[in-house]
Amino acid sequence: MASASSTSAKSLFAESKSRLADRVQNNVNNIASLARQVQRGSKTSEIMMSSARSFAGQEHVIVNTENNLKKMQQLIDKMNADLLSISKSASLIEAAKEQTAAMQR
């Protein structure tokens, strides 16, 4: 009798184990299906591709901006040099005016 009960318990355990494995497999399949649906619904890959294209397109704009900033810096440097030259000339003009005024006296 113990043998029959043992065989019955083993059979029940094997059946339960088999049903559990089927349920786990079913749940895994359902999760995979859900993940595919979410991915399709959210269009994540399309958004990522669009973002990558947009980012790559900005590289040219960034390079042009950098070149323009360098040109502006060169112009600023030249304008500062011109300002110094003009200031020096203005002070020389004032000195010349004073000398002219002194000569006229």
UniProtKB/TrEMBL annotation:
<keyword id="KW-0458">Lysosome</keyword>
<comment type="similarity">
    <text>Belongs to the BORCS7 family.</text>
</comment>
<dbReference type="InterPro" id="IPR032143">
    <property type="entry name" value="BORCS7"/>
</dbReference>
<dbReference type="GO" id="GO:0005765">
    <property type="term" value="C:lysosomal membrane"/>
</dbReference>
<keyword id="KW-0472">Membrane</keyword>
<dbReference type="GO" id="GO:0099078">
    <property type="term" value="C:BORC complex"/>
</dbReference>
<dbReference type="Pfam" id="PF16088">
    <property type="entry name" value="BORCS7"/>
</dbReference>
<protein>
    <recommendedName>
        <fullName>BLOC-1-related complex subunit 7</fullName>
    </recommendedName>
</protein>
